[in-house]
Amino acid sequence: MKKLLTRRSFIVGSTIGAGLSLSGCDVLTGSDSFSRVLKLGETITMGAQRLFLSDKALAREFTEADMSPVFKSNGTHRPDSAEYAALAENNFVDWRLVIDGLVDQPLSLSLAELKRLPSRTQITRHDCVEGWSAIGKWTGVPLGLLLQAARLKPNARYLVFHCADEYEKTLDGTGQYYESIDLVDAFHPQTILAYGMNGTDLPIPNGAPLRLRVERQLGYKHAKYLMRIEAVESFAAFGRGNGGFWEDRGYEWYAGI
Amino acid sequence: MVTIDADARPATRILVKRHALSVRITHWINVLCLSFLILSGLQIFNAHPALYWGQYGADADTPFIAIEAVRDGDGLRGVTTIGPVSLTTTGVLGVSSYNGQERARAFPSWLTIPSYRDLGMGRYWHFFFAWLFAINGAVYLVYGFISGHFRRDLAPKLEELKPAHIGHEIITHARLDFPKGEAARRYNALQKLAYLGVVVLLALMVLTGLTMSPGVNAIVPWLVDVFGGRQSARTIHFICATLIVAFIIVHLVMVLLSGVWNNLRSMVTGRYAIRLEGPRT
Q1: How much is the pLDDT for A14?
Q2: What is the mean pLDDT of residues B131-138?
Q3: Top-level CATH class of A60-249?
Q4: Where is it mainly found (chain B) (predicted)?
Q5: Containing H/E element for B239?
Q6: Touching check for B63 and chain A: CB below 8 Å?
Q7: In chain A, which among 146-165 make CB contacts under 8 A with chain B?
Q8: What ipTM, to 2 d.p.?
Q9: Contact A111, A210 (CB under 8 A)
């Protein structure tokens, strides 16, 4: 009898304990110093992946038979600004990609000019942070090629991608979508600015007229609706300072896992 | 250490050394890591509560396991689908209450870290403890091989694997008739198989977890082929986690039924009490 009570109190006690520790997790999640400790995981992941990942190691490329029947559109499906609507109306003839910031030769390129440059076509798997994957075919200009033309200054460390879509309405403008990558990914042979998808022009739900493909990272890094690429020394001055729209909302800047 | 009370009882209760310090430390670190990994893993699962087979899988593709919320009149109904079977699971899976309100969410808030929906923070929790878990697991594996722990304590002997022997152990286990005396010094065949099995499952968790990483895919491209694609790896990750939860439940029940304090002491101090047939006076 005594033993039974002990067992029961053990079970009851551990259940209450587990419940308390779970709500404790919410408190810890909200604590700055604790989340800094948790974020050590990202530092170790990036360090480990960069250690073992040679700069040129490629993401898997597939055949047309492997492609998803439907490539899911996620996030913004169509930017709702009047400027974007005007550009789309005219089939993006008036759209230009600006490459500036810490470069010796700022560039402004039309879609037709981009399409005349050497291109790369790759069938790759797109992995969303949510867990789903889709395989699609992308055609575009290797980003490294454009950066060589623009000639990065020695202090340029990151590229910030400014997008046409405002994904969250905010008073201070921090709801505008943007992303950033470092130069290791920028000069990777599979990092392209894609204007074509699955053999046609990039559709609006997937980021027309131009989107980034950075194949060794998760989907939210692949910024859509590109307007401007800015070479910078630090991304602290953009958005809320974490290097991207989702990074500002609690996601890792290095999205290799 | 030896208690002899031969007059009152025919048996002698002795404390034997059961678990090495390395096993005890790695066991408790593992308890900590798995608790956070499972609960934050369910938070991550909730972001896309459907599992597929193959390289790809998203909304337009057919999942074979899904936990969804569907409209049902004015309210929501939780539906869990496994292959051709669909079950209504409102209250726990698909639809559950959060702060008194019915919400569409695959796993309920009391099973996720954080309790509210936050994939970003769920991932930070998951990967922090994933690193601790992987390092702890590596220490355990190296120790297990070098010290002979696997060979001596966990590898079943050939005669223990005979169906008749296993069948006999299953029957005695079901009767809660646990080994006593000399036989209690060693793990029985069911224990050996269960503990080895869970080590394999835990290793699969690390490997399938790594397979979901696009960075790791570029480092070791063959790993994704081993599991038949990234979405298959995600599905295997989930199935192995489910089996680990099943192991944990059985493990805890057995710990409770076979002498909770003796078991707990052995995993804390290393000493386990067994009764030997004592000298009769």
Answers
A1: 63
A2: 98
A3: alpha beta
A4: membrane
A5: helix B230-257
A6: no
A7: none
A8: 0.90
A9: yes
